[in-house]
Design a protein that fits this description.
The protein is an alpha/beta fold. It contains 40 helices and twelve strands. The strands form three sheets. Strands 7, 8, 9, 10, 11 and 12 form a six-stranded mixed β-sheet that branches. A three-stranded mixed β-sheet has the order 2-1-6. A three-stranded antiparallel β-sheet has the order 3-5-4. Strand 4 and strand 5 form a beta hairpin. Helix 5 runs antiparallel to helix 6 and helix 28 runs parallel beside helix 30.
Length: 889
């Protein structure tokens, strides 16, 4: 077993406690091993990312050679099983025989084992460690150190709270002191410790903690504690000792639902530290807070600012006004030359009123610039070529003084975009909210002067200013990626935004899988995206839709219940989408239609949402309304590009109103766009069958064997639907020929495929369509026996009994189906009862049950095939049935 300790002093030992000096002797190998062990996502990392991270100064060939050499040394030292490859492009640590304290620390925190976590936390990540020539690794290391220290501090405060609540005051003080020591520059933690000691009557301890902190502050930063800290210690010194009151306990639970939904990793029972530990407010009446900055972050920010700041522009009042007038005209004249593929990041404007925080604006711009450069989404302009003012004002007077704060930042970004010929700009401001800093950012299209996206504000304690900037960088990078993605950009202003580029990539991969109808892969990606940040709800929202599609409405409902606790925080589109999906699960197509309409109102330019409205309009028998929407959309670009579903709804709507020539034209347009896709071939086949073009039908059927596999449409099913369409439109001979082709296709499949339940069901349905009743029964009976609760198999047995005149067996099946109830049945049992009644010749009862099944939310697949269902052939000349099929809008 290899043991790797990186929290504090680095320690790497193998079996028997043998120190692995061959690795420790080279700092970059240590850094590489630490990154592989600690960086998220855990397990595999791309080789090209590792090369860029650790050897940015080398060309590609030499950098890859350096990586190979380092990995060779690691394998030789750690053992062959220590490193694993995932294809040729990814490398990671093996799960067996390797232990690292940082992942163990994170696991303990996630499991609520805070004492175990703090036992592992011996100091900062790679304490005292440094490698030259790897600035991005240093950024990662600084971010991780801050996050780990924050989590350790929170764990210590949680233990202090629970100890205080349990009446163990000495242990509470121990953990409070540990928390304050971990956050040594944080006056908020110091005040919590002082308040606790004061409440427990340990005034001497409180004074000692204050004086130690004040002495170090004076020696290291030449400043004194903030006024509220001085006021607090004065209050403690003046107060008489009094016994501490018992603290109330608070418990909270977490959702641990069935299936994939396991996002909340908090312990089942916790203690609210804000209730168990005294706050500062009850002890003193605090004066208005003065600006307080994390002194360590201040020094770091100042250092970065000295490296990256350029000389500022200085101008007198009259000059500024003249320059502003000239600048407006000059900017407008230069606007057409802006490059759509270039982006620039402007320094963030300081709105805190504290000039000592000015360097944070440049630090934010610099970090965001680097983050964008890593993605390769756009060419990133060098803002260093252009001198910028430090106060965020260039004197442009385009709006009222009341709007000046937002205008100045926007105007400055505009000028910088023109100087660098950048078509897109990122800019923003940061504010002081008590002990917190809030960063707000915008992404704008400088060619049209429109806001593309307002980034959700990032808020962090002032002592964690770098963590806030790191979070801002993640959100801006992910937001830009979403804006540039033609399939996602329509969602960005009304749905939850991806919190990081990694989360965006996972969500985009989920959407791609979903468009291929690969529901399981889509779910894996959506849940991965959601696990990266609990505030990112959109992947869960989409997962709810996938579960509904997979007939797993219990899991859809589980997600809805989970997110209902966050309902006030849900983005509007997220909420409406959930309403639509749960309505579909419950079979309420009218409610689903209304929810999709609300989605469209929230995002009227979204063609993806417009397509959703049209689909739900079809479900409530309004094909003309669907056509009026679909005909305005653009399936060859934007959000609908790659979505063959658009042509599905377009062809269904045309088919429902009998516009088969228009249906064929639309289907052929879809085939030109997706020539090797069986879904668009199916659309053309159904239109040709409705028109009776038998030669063309057979010609197109010949193309099926060469078609690549499809996640939804299967060759045998497409042939069966085509045969039934021919029969419904008066071509029985052609129908028999096509149905026989389908059965021949099933016979040609490998035996292991024929033995699967899915293949047997497809064959059963085709035999039923071809009126091969005895063969159909031979398949249906064993399936029904093996799956007694399956509605399709029980219904098929009832329909086959009705066909052969066995009324008792048919009525027995009808009775069983009538008792089949559940929250997510959606009309299927009732639909089979309608089929049985129709085969028994009970036409009125059949139509009544069919109307009931439709009202119960029958799947849209059945809605589009009422007229071709072989069970309803006796109803084709029956007026109530014809009225039921008549479009309603």
């Amino acid at each position: 077993m290899v043991e790797f300790r990186i929290l504090g002093t680095v320690k790497l030992v193998g079996d028997g406690g043998r120190e692995l000096r061959s690795v420790l002797a080279q700092s970059k190998r240590v850094a590489l091993l630490a990154y592989l062990a600690a960086a998220t996502p855990r397990r595999f990392h791309r080789r090209d990312s590792l090369v860029a991270l650790f050897w940015p100064e080398l060309d590609q060939d030499h950098a890859r050679a350096a990586l190979r050499q380092s990995l060779h040394v690691l394998r030789r030292s750690l053992g062959e099983g220590a490193l694993e490859s995932h294809g040729d492009d990814e490398i990671g640590l093996g799960d067996a025989d390797f232990w690292c304290d940082m992942p163990a620390f994170d696991s303990a925190i996630a499991a609520g084992r805070h004492a175990d976590a703090l036992e592992l936390y011996h100091g900062d990540l790679l304490d005292g460690f440094f490698i030259s020539g790897a600035p991005e690794f240093e950024h990662w290391l600084e971010d991780e150190r801050a996050g780990l220290r924050r989590r350790a501090t929170e764990a210590a405060w949680t233990l202090a709270a629970s100890s205080r609540a349990a009446g163990d005051t000495s242990l509470a003080v121990h953990w409070a002191r540990r928390a304050a020591a971990l956050a040594r520059d944080d006056e908020g933690s110091l005040r919590r410790l002082i308040a606790l000691l004061g409440e427990l009557g340990d005034r001497a301890g409180a004074v000692q903690a204050y004086e130690t902190f004040a002495r170090r502050l004076a020696e290291e930063y030449e400043v004194e504690p903030a006024s509220e800290t001085r006021a607090l210690i004065a209050s403690v010194r003046a107060r008489e000792t009094k016994p501490a009151a018992a603290a109330p306990k608070s418990t909270s639970g977490s959702l641990n639902s069935e299936g994939y939904l396991t996002l909340d990793r908090s312990p089942a029972t916790t203690v609210d530290a804000s209730q168990a530990l005294p706050d500062v407010a009850p002890i003193i009446e605090q004066p208005p807070p003065e600006p307080v900055m994390d002194h360590e972050a201040h020094r770091a920010a100042a250092s970065v600012a000295r490296r990256f700041l350029r000389p500022t522009m200085i101008a007198a009042g009259a000059t500024v006004l003249i320059g502003a007038t000239l600048s407006v005209g000059w900017m407008r004249a230069r606007a057409p030359s802006l490059d759509a593929h270039r982006i620039v990041v402007a320094p963030f404007a300081n709105r805190t009123g504290d000039s000592t925080l000015n360097p944070l604006g440049d630090l934010a711009a610099d970090w965001i610039t680097r983050g964008l450069a890593e993605t390769g989404l756009l060419e990133v302009a060098d803002r260093g070529r252009v001198p910028m003012e430090r106060d965020g004002s260039i004197g442009l007077q385009r709006r009222s003084t009341s709007d000046r704060r937002g205008l100045d930042a926007a105007s400055r970004a505009r000028e910088l975009a023109i100087e660098t010929e950048s078509g897109t700009a990122v800019w923003g401001s940061f504010y002081r909210r008590g002990d917190s800093l809030e960063f707000a950012a915008q992404i704008t299209d400088e060619r049209s002067e429109k806001v593309l996206l307002s980034i959700e504000p990032v808020v962090a304690d002032v002592r964690e200013s770098r963590a806030a900037i790191a979070g801002l960088r993640q959100r801006v990078t992910a937001g830009l990626a979403a804006v540039l993605d033609p399939k996602l950009k329509e969602w960005t202003s009304v749905a939850s935004q991806p919190p990081s580029y990694e989360a965006y990539q996972a969500f985009a991969a989920g959407m791609d899988a979903w468009e291929r109808f690969d529901g399981r892969e889509a779910l894996r990606e959506f849940y991965h995206a959601a696990s990266l940040d609990s505030t990112y709800t959109l992947p869960l929202v989409m997962a709810a839709g996938v579960h509904r599609y997979l007939d797993e409405c219990e899991k859809t409902d589980s997600i809805v219940q989970f997110l209902s606790n966050r309902q006030p925080r849900l983005a509007r589109l997220d909420k409406d989408f959930l309403d639509k999906e749960i309505a579909r699960c419950r079979g309420d197509w009218a409610a689903a239609y209304r929810a999709s309409r609300r989605m469209y109102e929230a995002s009227p330019r979204s063609e993806w949402v417009a397509e959703e409205v049209s689909r739900n309009a079809i479900a409530i028998h309004r094909p003309r309304e669907a056509l009026s929407i679909l005909e305005t959309l653009h399936p060859d670009r934007g959000a609908l590009q790659g979505r063959t579903a658009y042509y599905n709804w377009l062809n269904i709507a045309n088919h429902m109103i009998g516009a088969h020539d228009e249906e064929l034209e639309a289907a052929q347009r879809g085939r030109r766009q997706y020539p090797n896709n069986i879904a668009t071939l199916r659309h053309e086949l159904l239109a040709l069958a409705a028109l009776g073009r038998l030669h063309d039908v057979n010609s197109r059927l010949d193309e099926i064997p060469a078609m690549p596999p499809h996640g939804l449409q299967k060759p045998g099913a497409v042939m069966r639907e085509t045969g039934l369409e021919l029969r419904a439109h008066g071509y029985p001979d052609g129908s028999r020929e096509v149905l026989q082709r389908a059965l021949t296709w099933f016979d040609s499949r490998p035996l292991e495929e024929q033995a699967t339940e899915a293949s047997q069901l497809e064959r059963l349905q085709t035999l039923y369509a071809a009126r091969r009743w005895d063969l159909a029964r031979a398949i249906a009976e064993p399936l029904a026996k093996d799956h007694p609760n399956n509605v399709n198999y029980q219904g098929m047995l009832g329909a086959l009994a009705a066909v052969r005149g066995d009324r008792k067996a048919a009525e027995r099946a009808d009775s069983v189906l009538a008792t089949h109830r559940g929250p997510f049945v959606r009309g299927l049992p009732t639909y089979w009862r309608a089929r049985i009644a129709a085969q028994l010749g009970e036409r009125a009862q059949a139509v009544t049950l069919l109307i009931q099944a439709d009202a119960e939310g029958l799947n849209l697949f059945f809605v589009q095939s009422y007229h071709t269902d072989p069970s309803f052939e006796r109803l084709t000349d029956y007026a109530p049935f014809q009225e039921f099929l008549r479009p309603k809008g």
